[in-house]
Amino acid sequence: MSRKKDQVLLNEQIRVPEVRCVGDDGTQYGIISRDEALRLAEQRGLDLVLIAPNANPPVCKIMDYGKFKYQQEKKLKEAKKKQTKIEVKEIKFSVKIAQNDIDYKVKHAREFLEKGKHVKFRVFLRGREMAHPEAGVEVLNKIIPLIEDVGVVEKKPHQEGRYINMLVVPKKEDKK
Question: Domain range holding 163?
Fold first, then answer.
């Protein structure tokens, strides 16, 4: 994170002549001089924090900055806990792959899908195979019926450079 974004101006760091002041309880003090806003904050034993520097006039709030910062960090931690990381496993094929090799690789893909991981199937096109990318699409189309019961094709086979890619995600279980 950048330092500029994290830095909040408070108390004497605020260098504007007049501010729109708001109390921590929501009280509107209106547009007053910076010195008067600082005096109000000092009387309550709180900080004057610049919350909207680009407004005209800038908006300041009288609040306990330490408590405010603590609550912000707490919210960030909560948000991080709720995030889920999606793992994508990649399985590569060639155009000239035998059926038993497809079955073997699909067996692993099924295991990944059952564990809730996303699977990216890739067919690498070598040399003259680039002239017939539909051969790669055919290989991926053979795979679809083998994994339909555990996964859903999110991205149909499509070409990206020398690869034909297809993304399969696990099926959502119906919650009863």
Answer: 88-170
End-to-end CA distance of the chain: 43
- Domain boundary pick from 56, 79, 102: 79
Cis bond upstream, residue 17 (ω within 30): no
Shared-domain flag, residues 20 and 92: no
| Angle, CA of 111, 113 and 119, to the nearest 5° | 110
Residue 88: strand pairing partners:
118
At 34-87, the pLDDT tens digits run 888 888 888 888 888 888 888 888 888 888 888 888 888 998 888 888 877 788
User: Residue for token digits 């760091």?
Assistant: 13
Domain boundary among 79, 97, 115: 79
The tokens for 93 are 């094929």
